[in-house]
Amino acid sequence: MNKQELPPILRIDELSVSFGTASVVKGLSFDVFPGRTTAVVGESGSGKSVMSMSIMRLADMAGASFPSGRILFSSGAGEGIDLLKCDQEAMRRIRGKEIAMIFQEPMTSLNPVFTIGDQLCEVLILHEKRSRAEAMVEAERLLALVRLPDARALLARYPHQLSGGMRQRVMIAMALACRPKLLIADEPTTALDVTVQAEILNIMKDLQAELGMAMIFITHDMGVVAEMADDVVVMWQGEKVEAGPVEEIFTRPRHPYTRMLLSAVPKLGAMQGFTHPRRTPLTVLRNGELVQEGDDRQQDTADYTVPPLLRVEDLSIQFDVKKSFWGRTTHRNFAVSQVGFEIYPGETLALVGESGSGKSTIGRTIQQLQESANGEVWFDGKPMSKMKLAERQRLRREVQYIFQDPFASLDPRRTVGDSIAEPILTHGLLDRGTPTRRRVGELLERVGLSADMASRYPHEFSGGQRQRVCIARALASRPRLIIADEALSALDVSVQAQVINLFMDLQREEGLAYLFISHDMAVVEKMSHRVAVLYLGQIMEIGKRADVFERTAHPYTQRLLSAVPLADPSARRQRVALTGEIPSSIHPVGAPPALNPLREIANGHFIAQERV
């Protein structure tokens, strides 16, 4: 659809947003047209999310003021209404019904004391005036629409019982429930693996075509921008620095900042011919000019001549999910089934797979946050089950975890400096006072923040900045193994490139090992020595990075790689929709899933014998 055929459904005109004396958005103007997708891209902290919260008039609750500008929304003919002049009562009628929003952090957006069904029904009862029975039927249909397995059972579950990716899909279902005229998607696919992301993007495109729905798509994934956007707005330090059709932005970027963003995007296939992970120079913007910093080297840090630092043997983890009237368990979630792998000093092993495949469950079990049903975890040659209390405490210092949701893993009542200092003081690594404060400042600067941010609270940071605080906290106790659970998913591409290099520098300098849990296949290809592909709690393929990416043997791995969006608008592919029953890891007690034993097809390269 040509955007000149219809008037804009939303017009942002010289919008400025301030918090106290700090000006966060400055003179922002752009239009959003029916049936078209406008992608808003930029660094963490550039004002993207504040802009979206201002449209919904939710920024008011955080103390925002609007010194100038208008936000004109038109759901029909005419110029429409200025949302900045609406009171909250009027906005409650618009929010969810006319304008819906998918928020960046699903765990903090869902109410932990209500079931998924209750929260979906609330939207339908309030805005669509449906009965509760009708709302429950529609809620089940919406969950199936976003390809959540066993949708009916999910209605009775609570947010904490779902994986990060599953929670994000619930948020997407909730936003689409009333078929809004404008959908604001703030990093909607951040927590999703590539196959589900491809499916969700298809769903959003189909609904957009069916309803003529307009979309504002806020993301740092340039592959998703190339796949979804019709128009692109580039924001930097609260201002619009470039805007135009997606093809023009990608092929002829004019502003140095846009060129820097595009140069930072990791590209799938760029590692072909390299044996080891590769650290590449950063392209940074300095005094309006692009310059390259850092060296280009291969990361040959893994030491395979010594025993593995971590060994996982036949690990199985199950959760009871259904019970009979008499309280007897009838169904279990077989989250992990007989998984085994090793991680050597200085090595990065990546765990990849769909949401709900068991990646985070394995990480939490190694960190002693989750008990296993069977199997053993060995660290430094000692089985975890035989460790004494003092040894387990030392293990907690030597194995650190970077969680998927940065806001939920930071205490909102403590400054970030206190949170980073906590492991230093708990394990007695430095004296309280000046030495600890100095170390906290060094850690903040190491992850690209400034030392004076130590006195701020988590809510004063953007999502990407909070994730960097979590990385600084993980480094504080000088660990030997870091479990990074989607540690880069909340970061925009330029900061992501800095943090990848930071991980690699720390690995070279301190011999760190990483268990890197991710759904970003391009990042995994760049920084992993070996890769394990999980599906429904079992390893489908494991081997050296080059084997898994360049000599892919299992059909499931091939499907994962084919779903990766390419950062090239001219290469948009027609997605093949998944059909049939949605696979689930939930089985009746006494009928566990069939196990797929691994078979070695080359030196160190294993695949599951049964096809998915």
Task: Describe the overall structure.
The chain is of the alpha/beta class. It has a domain at 33-45 and 93-263: Rossmann fold (3-Layer(aba) Sandwich), CATH 3.40.50.300. Helix content is 32%, strand content 26%. The chain is built from 20 helices and 27 strands. The strands form six sheets. An eight-stranded mixed beta sheet has the order 20-21-22-17-23-24-27-26, sandwiched between helices. A six-stranded mixed beta sheet has the order 6-7-8-3-9-10, with helices on both faces. The protein has a five-stranded antiparallel beta sheet with strand order 19-18-15-16-25, covered by helices on one side. A hairpin with a 7-residue loop joins strand 4 (64-73) and strand 5. The two termini are 39 Å apart. 49% of the residues are buried. The model is unreliable at 576-581 (pLDDT under 50).
**Strand percentage, roughly?**
25-35%
- Shape verdict: globular
Number of helices: 20
How widely separated are the two ends?
39 Å
- On the 0-100 scale, what is the average pLDDT? 87
| CATH architectural type of the domain at 33-45 and 93-263 | 3-Layer(aba) Sandwich
CATH superfamily of the domain at 33-45 and 93-263: P-loop containing nucleotide triphosphate hydrolases
- The CATH class designation of the domain at 33-45 and 93-263 is Alpha Beta
At the third CATH level, what is the topology name of the domain at 33-45 and 93-263? Rossmann fold
Percentage of residues in helical conformation: 25-40%
Class computed from helices, strands and strand pairing = alpha/beta
Extended strand count: 27
Strand order across the largest sheet: 20-21-22-17-23-24-27-26
Query: Low-confidence segments, ≥5 residues, pLDDT <50?
Result: 576-581
Radius of gyration: 24 Å
The major β-sheet equals: 8 strands, mixed
